[in-house]
Amino acid sequence: MEVQFLKGIGPRLAAGLKKAGLNTVGDVLWRFPRRYEDRTNLPPISQTTPGQVATIRGAIARVESRTVRGGRTILTATVKDPTGQITLVWFNQPWIKRQLENAAGEIIAFGVVKDAGRNYEMSNPEWEIVDDEDESEDFARIFPVYPLTDGLQQRTARKAAESSLMFADIAPETLPAGFRRKYQMPDLRMALEQMHRPESEPMRRRARERFVFEEFLVLQLGLAMRRAETELEIGIAFPITQLIRGEEASPESTHLFGSQEAAARQGEPLWEQIRRMMPFELTGAQKRVVEEIWSDMGRPHPMNRLVQGDVGSGKTAVAACAILAAIRSGYQAALMAPTEILAEQHARNLTKLFAPLNIRVDLLVGKHAAKEKKEAMRRLATGESHLAVGTHALIQEGVQFHKLGLAVVDEQHRFGVLQRKALRDKSDTNPDVLVMTATPIPRTLTMTVYGDLDLSVIDELPPGRKPIKTHWKRPSERESVYAGVRKMIEQGRQAFFVCPLVGESEKLNVQAAEDLFYRLSTEVYADLKVGLLHGQMKPKDKDTVMDQFRAGDFHILVSTTVIEVGVDVPNASVMVIEDANRFGLAQLHQLRGRVGRGDYQSFCILIADATNEDSRKRMEVMVETTDGFRIAEEDLRLRGPGVIAGTQQSGNSDFKIADILQDGRQLEIARQAAMQVIEQDPKLENPEWAIIREKVLARRSDMAVIALS
Ligand code: ADP
Ligand code: MG
Question: According to the CATH classification, is domain 41-139 in 1.10.340.30?
Answer without folding.
Answer: no
